[in-house]
Amino acid sequence: MAVSKRVVLHFPRRLVEQPVIYHLVKDYNLEFNILRASITAEPEEEGLLVLQLKGEQEEYDKGVKFLLKSGVKIQSLSQDVTRNEAHCTHCGACVTICPPGAFVLDSKTRKVRFEDEKCVACGLCIKACPPRAMEVHF
Amino acid sequence: MKTIAEINEKIRQGKAVVVNAEEAIDLVKEKGVKHAAQHVDVVTTGTFGPMCSSGIYFNIGHSKPRIKLGGGRVYLNDVLAYPGLAAADVFFGANALPDDDPRNRVHPGDFNYGGGHVIEELVAGKDIRFTASAYGTDCYPRKRLETWLNIKDLNEAVLFNIRNAYQNYNVAVNLSDKTIYTYMGVLKPRLGNANYCSAGQLSPLLNDPHYRTIGIGTRIFLGGSVGYVAWQGTQHNPNVLRTEAGVPKRSAGTLAVIGDLKQMNPRWLVGTSMYGYGVTLTVGVGVPIPILNEEILRSTAVTDEEIYAGVVDYSDAYPNLKPDIVGEVSYAELKSGRVKLQGKNIPTSSLSSYSRAVEIAETLKDWIKRGEFLLTEAVAPLPGVESGVAFKPLPERPLEI
Question: Which terminus of chain B is less hemmed in, N or C, by CB atoms within 10 Å?
Fold first, then answer.
């Protein structure tokens, strides 16, 4: 069965120069799309990749095991940007800010739905939200 | 046809027929204006959006020994207040910032905390750090005061917003090549988005376009409690382009509103950060409209299709005080999510929460139906189109050395 997941990968310093993603393709047949990449100056972690990974469930699981064994930390993307429901006033300012369109204004209720599966954790909504209801955790 | 006194009598008896401005639209479709006007007693309106000219004034009571705040310096949670009044009275605005906030030195600034947030925290019952310095007099010898203050400790705590509930507003776009950060939100380059800020068909002054019932002394919903219209708001500008039905097509009237902060609720007074612009307060306002005759009812049945706004470029025209508009669009188009401007199909974003505006109109409806809220007769009208009141630009006269 094919799966498609968005993940956030944290690479320790020693792995930054290693072709880790190459192995995901070659050994586990996974299709990848880079949503975001950065090499930080943090002393604890050096590399950040936000990827969309697609492939057969079995191969995906094996690929994840390989990453974990190599020392890469993995998080599912949808956990990273969250909305504080108590602070959101459903104004709608976020709707046109979000590149993948993860904020949808319901035409009946006029409330904003946050469809977090679409979120690529770009972070643009964090500061654009007037009541500062959006929070990012990396 | 009807008087406010008659309507209030029905309210006291729990017999008043109250609908919100959205329901008024359907009622007119069903019954026609004549019968709807006979049937309905009150139409409620509401709006919940960022309203920058908002603030509070309060009295802290006297310390031992006494301190004279007037002419001194006062901070609430390190955000600058305005103590230019008597010894224990202070003004405090929604856009005030801490002295050390970097503002836009590294642009766009975050503006994470300021007046609006302090006001929200005060209303929510949180303790606020009150720090003050004064110059000392014989009768007010104290020069420093640092104390926690809670809204319960204050004598008066009054919300006094000198400009709220704008009757219509601009639609903001950005014609330049760079993203800009404004009080109308983040505007993407080359007509990347179009932002609007109005409740449209539910908005108070858009339902009473010529200020027939809303005036000084009108009792309203303000910040979760009862408030009053105190005066016209600043920049009140009745003489703008209007439709045949009298609905302004540009930003027109405004209200100065006042109420007891101690009775209000932080759900309706929300500290707000506009990235790259500043801090402000999002305020909930709701105004009841007594249906005294058919004309008044007809005005409350205005729909988003019939309300238009001017589209203004905030990259050049707005900052440089140029009167040009990019186009005119209706609120129906804006609320559909896309508008057509300069041949492009542009996504829209609101800054005003329509769902919260509905909640305000419903809450006000509920208060009236339960007999807890009586309508008032305005003691003086708001300046209308014939009044000559207009919002002028500044006539700058440079100082000569």
Answer: C
How far is it, in rounded angstroms, from Cα B126 to Cα B167? 33
CB of A94 within 8 Å of a chain B CB? The answer is yes
Note whether A96 contacts B: Cβ–Cβ < 8 A: yes
Sequence ranges of chain A with CATH classification 3.30.70.260: 2-79
Write the burial class of residue B291 (CB in 10 Å: 0-12 exposed, 13-18 middle, 19+ buried): buried
Averaged pLDDT in 10-residue chunks for chain B of 401 residues: 97 97 97 96 98 98 97 98 96 98 96 98 98 97 98 98 98 98 98 98 98 98 98 98 97 98 98 98 98 98 98 98 97 98 97 98 98 98 96 95 79
- pLDDT digits 0-9 by tens, A91-121: 999 999 999 999 999 999 999 999 988 888 8
Contact A132 B350 (CB under 8 A): no
Least CB-CB distance to B352: which of A91, A96, A127?
A: A91
- Closest by Cβ to A93, choosing from B185, B271, B347: B185
Does domain A2-79 bear CATH number 3.30.930.10?
A: no
Q: What is the phi/psi pair of residue A114, to 5°?
A: -105, 105
Our CA-based measurement puts residue B202 at a distance from the nearest CA of chain A, in whole angstroms, of 13
CATH number assigned to the domain covering A82-136: 3.30.70.20
B52 is catalytic: no
